[in-house]
Hints:
GO molecular function (chain A): transmembrane transporter activity
Membrane topology (chain A): Multi-pass membrane protein
Strand content of chain B: under 5%
Number of strands of chain A: 0
Largest sheet of chain B: 2 strands, antiparallel
Strand content of chain A: under 5%
CATH topology of chain B: ABC transporter involved in vitamin B12 uptake, BtuC
CATH class of chain B: Mainly Alpha
Helix content of chain A: over 70%
CATH topology of chain A: ABC transporter involved in vitamin B12 uptake, BtuC
Number of strands of chain B: 2
Keywords (chain A): Cell membrane, Membrane, Transmembrane, Transmembrane helix
Subcellular location (chain A): Cell membrane
Shape of chain B: globular
Strand order of the largest sheet of chain B: 1-2
Structural class of chain A: mainly alpha
Number of domains of chain B: 1
CATH architecture of chain B: Orthogonal Bundle
Largest sheet of chain A: none
CATH architecture of chain A: Orthogonal Bundle
Order of helices and strands of chain A: HHHHHHHHHHHHHHHH
Shape of chain A: globular
Order of helices and strands of chain B: HHHHHHHHHHHHEEH
Radius of gyration of chain A: 22 Å
Distance between the termini of chain B: 67 Å
Radius of gyration of chain B: 21 Å
Protein name (chain A): ABC transporter permease
Number of helices of chain B: 13
Oligomer: heterodimer
Number of domains of chain A: 1
Amino acid sequence: MDKMPKWADVLLIPLLNLVLALVVSGLVVVLIGQDPFEAMAIMVRGAVGSTYGWGYTLYYATNFIFTGLAVAVAFHAQLFNIGGEGQAQLGSLGVALVCLFVPWPHWSLALAAAIAGGALFGAAWAAIPAYLQAKRGSHIVITTIMFNFIASALLVYLLISSLKAPGMAPETARFPEATRLPFAQDVFAAIGIDWSRSPLNVSFLVGLAACWLVWLLIWRTRLGYEIRAYGQSEPAARYAGISQVKIVMVTMLISGALAGLMGINAVMGEQQRLLQDNVLGAGFVGIAVSLMGRGHPVGVLLAAILFGALYQGGAELEFETSVPREMIVVIQALVILFTGALDNMVRDPVSRMFLRWGRRKPTPQPAGD
Amino acid sequence: MDFLTVIQILDSTVRLAIPLLFACLAGLFSERAGIVDIGLEGKMLVAAFFSAAVAALTGSVWLGLLAGIAAALIFALIHGLASITFRGDQLISGVAINFLASGMTVLIAQDWFSQGGRTPSLSGTGRFNSIDLPGANALEAAHAAAESPGMGLSAIYWELLSGHTILVYVGFLAVPITWWVLFRTRFGLRLRAVGENPGAVDTAGVSVVRLRYAAVLICGLLSGLAGAYLATGLAAGFTRDMTAGRGYIALAALIFAKWRPVYALGACLLFGFLQAVSNRFNVIDLGLIEIPNAFVLALPYILTVVILAGFVGKAIPPRAGGQPYVKER
């Protein structure tokens, strides 16, 4: 396995994949008659050119951190959790219930309870597919896809019946004022920095904490070791006495809980009520984020910020040119395609190149990592 | 609920089942050859867009159909390239294809027509029009005129069997053809073998890669038909994300049917029926309990999970499904 130095695997190949995805996206922009470089400039300026842009970028990134970590944790056990969307919707429901039906004196208590509620509901929604995979061998990808649709039907039903607020729109009542999370502009104003209005809120810090905790879990605990061992080789893990049922269940519960946490950012932080579609595809973006980030929390964080910038930049692009917002979906699809499915297209030639390069020197130097 | 209402619901069952059926058979070919395809949704969507767009531009639904199939074939080739040639993850490739279709269609629709991501409405030769079976109109007129009790049954002919587009009849025909190809030809035998044990097929001197590409392309062709029917038969034009999860329902139907063509017909008719019922009634009142519409819509997914769980007959997928084939060296 010493074909390729580690930096090439961790940095070079994802970067090459990203460049390929961006080049093809640029071609798409050319095809619809726009200047790709100008489009790129607008997107970059819109995403990171102001505190307003940064606010939105990091707000979107917060969603993607949670869904990205959810996919990443499951990937470590070789489980493909494609149900982040449904788990996030149920998590949002949990957050909404906590905020609506308990009179909280202070936002910090509400946040703690909402974290528990979101995680619990998200985990519960992942529990059934996990159980069916562990005990009955039903393929987790198919069951989680089905659970996405069931979740959305459930939410539609609840929002036109028991949870519906008076009025026409299928949504809950507004959450009480005491559950409102501090926005970035409030926090920065307190220390005298001028920050534009944006939906960025303290959930971002929860997201950072989640990254650290996932790192701790996967690489510094016994459970994390078992998850990785199971993911590397299921038979070997079983010989070592690791219970398959336990790993599949626990991994999926953690994954679902992480996806469910998205609700504190989107529902509690921004919308302040439960809408019919509050996840808006973030569950699927998590797949792209996790693939780009190579399953490592730091990678996930960086990829989430990249995708947050893409979302915010895409919104600005639609505002300033005639390129519709769907450009983001295309870029996202190409990133998934090149980093996930067509990975070997880049990896094989690169590793061959390293092999040839290594052979030329008669005494290979020890790698410096 | 009178007899005519029942017939009308069954009629719309047929209309709604056909796109599912095409997509389900598409998935059947692909998965039987060991290529898992969750990109059915995306392939249907590009086919729906290009068929409607070309039909709108040229006024010919047949050219539209060809364009739709061509677009679905290109997406099928991307999936083949990723999962056969580059041995990538088939699930991830499918996810990417669904997103690519969802984004590209709106992008191109906006560029070509500037109508907020839709195509102009199709009419006349731009759509597949319904075919009246011989004597259907006369029977319907007779039914309207006379209230004789025996005439009610004639609705089965003029409402349920007659008045569909050509693609509906093609769809029903595709079921026995699929069965025949898969279970009565040498190609079908090899295709099924490549989904169970590609190593054995390779040992017998048959190219795994070529067989799998063939399967993926047939899958593209059929999902192209599904999408084209959706935009030019069922609806009159393309609207954004108009497949609305049908690709996934087709996938569910495929599992429900345990990867068999004739069962697939039954599963698609059942799921089409559920859609037709939920379209027609807001709440289904069974006397004791009321079933909300959302539950009926979620029922295909719930049923599939139950089937997958193996509580009602176990669904066993082709054994080599999802794994890239690496020839021994």
